[in-house]
Amino acid sequence: MSGTGVPLRIVTLSPIDYDRAPNNRDHNLVRVLAARGCEVTHVYQALNRSARLLDLLRDTVTASVRARSEGGVRLVRVDPCCNYYAGFRARSDHGRGRGVGRDRSDARGTRGARVGLARAAVLLLSPLACLRDLFFLPCFLFAALTQVRGRYDACLGFGPWGGLVGWWLRVFGRARLLVIEDRDFEPALLPDRFRRSYAGWVDRFVVRRADLVFSVGHRLGELRRRQGARAVHVIPNGVAWERFERARTSARRDRTLFYTGNIMPWSGLELVLRALPELRADFPDLRLRVVGDGPPGYRESLVRLARELGLAERVEWLGPRPHAELPALMEGTAIGLACSEPVPFRSYACPLKVLEYMAAGLPVIGTSDTETEALIARFECGLAVPFEIEAFAAAAGRLLSDAALHARLRANGIRHSADLTWERLIGEELEIIARGHPATPGPAGPSGARG
User: Fold this and answer.
1) How far is the CA of 14 from the CAs of 39, 158, 180, 181, 241, in angstroms?
2) Domain residue spans in the chain?
3) Cβ atoms within 10 A of the Cβ of 424, count?
4) Counting C-beta atoms within 10 Å of the first and last residue's C-beta, which end of the chain has fewer, N or C?
5) Does the 9-91+136-238+422-434 domain belong in CATH 3.40.50.2000?
């Protein structure tokens, strides 16, 4: 609702598939806005997953827009031209031979050959990928202009491309406010320099012209201020706190490390696996539980690594699971892992998993020099260490052996996460939007959420 009690008309624009990538900021944002009485239209990009030749051709040359209503929200699914299956595309300096193992003698051998082939593939496919970016704008703009009549009070664009569509809506007089939902530093995801360059330019263009920018972390917020944003507010990701009651109230605590999320080269799982043999010398019953999905080739390489290290029986690869199952899977585990490699994309990220670990009563181990470290420091809910095997092993060993430290970090996480609900955080964002003009950020609240 606005300050006058009149429901706001809001359109949100996201490149993430609302149906196939559940539990993102998108889902919680539109849910809370609708519950607050807003008229919400969510426009999102379809994720095509078929690698069959005919399907690839179809997804390259055709486009479609489909709309439906669900939970009080109008959902508009846009499948643009050139929206073919591209696999898992996430850039990481990990693949350039840095690695995390003690023995790096193969860095110029087999790994180097794989990296060379990957770079050649990126070079060959880059023109098609550029067409994907090019067609996003007209297809999304067409959907936003045709699916809802009249003028929006605010357009909330996720990332550079969603923000660019929103900027055009404001130019056409179809949106009064342009708001950037700044959840990631998206240009860092792109695998080739040319695309990173123009995506970075678009990113800066929309940030400077937005009426409001809501960044998920203080690192991103400071970056946007340096780039010339008019008004930046730091609103972190939240948590559905009540869902994790089963996990945080459980009296059982096994020596199990827990990871949930994408299984990617930057996820830090290789580092964890290489640290486990050292940890098992002191904690023979130690286990690792992994929930999530990633490129089959990379996931299988981790399974082989676990087998080579003698850990095949100590690691549970549970695959992707519905979000509703997470609390039960976390129950009885000891430590939540957020040890991402500190590449640019991950350095700016505010991982949902950290808030969910806190709500489940799991102390967190995260990586230094990232937004995760800032979360851990602010809420005193874990340990942040360099992205090194020895540092991780020392931190995990400390948490597993020091019951008083574990209990204190666990209690801090539970207490602070209770104030980081999606309802409160998105409600704060809506209040700023409803004021109808760029506002000067106020002082931090109890959670330090506002920057």
Assistant:
1) 17, 5, 11, 9, 25
2) 9-91+136-238+422-434, 241-417
3) 19
4) N
5) yes
With a CB cutoff of 8 Å and minimum separation 6, the contacts of 333 are 253, 254, 256, 257, 258, 289, 362
Residue with tokens 């960044």: 215
Contact between 16 and 45 (Cβ < 8 Å): yes
Distance CA 44, CA 73 (A): 13
Query: pLDDT tens for residues 201-255?
Result: 999 999 999 999 999 999 999 999 999 999 999 999 999 999 999 999 988 889 9
The answer to whether domain 9-91+136-238+422-434 and domain 241-417 are alike in fold is yes
* CATH match for 241-417 among 3.40.50.150, 3.90.700.10, 3.40.50.2000, 3.90.420.10: 3.40.50.2000
- Rounded to an integer, what distance in angstroms lies between the CA atom of residue 259 and that of residue 353? 8
Residues with Cβ within 8 Å of residue 159, at least 6 apart in sequence: 14, 15, 181, 183, 184, 186, 203
Task: Give the tokens for residue 25.
Answer: 């900021």
Q: How far apart are CA 381 and CA 379, in angstroms?
A: 5
End-to-end Cα spacing for the chain: 24
**Six-digit token pair at 150?**
């009249």
Interval 9-65: pLDDT, tens: 999 999 999 998 888 899 999 999 999 999 999 999 999 888 888 988 898 899 999
Q: Which helix (H) or strand (E) holds 259?
A: strand 256-260
Q: How far apart are CA 385 and CA 179, in angstroms?
A: 35
Provide CB contacts within 8 A for 190, sequence distance 6+: 89, 91, 196, 199
Q: In what order do the strands lie in the sheet with 287-291?
A: 315-317, 287-291, 256-260, 335-338, 364-367, 382-385
| Enclosing H/E stretch for 133 | helix 110-147
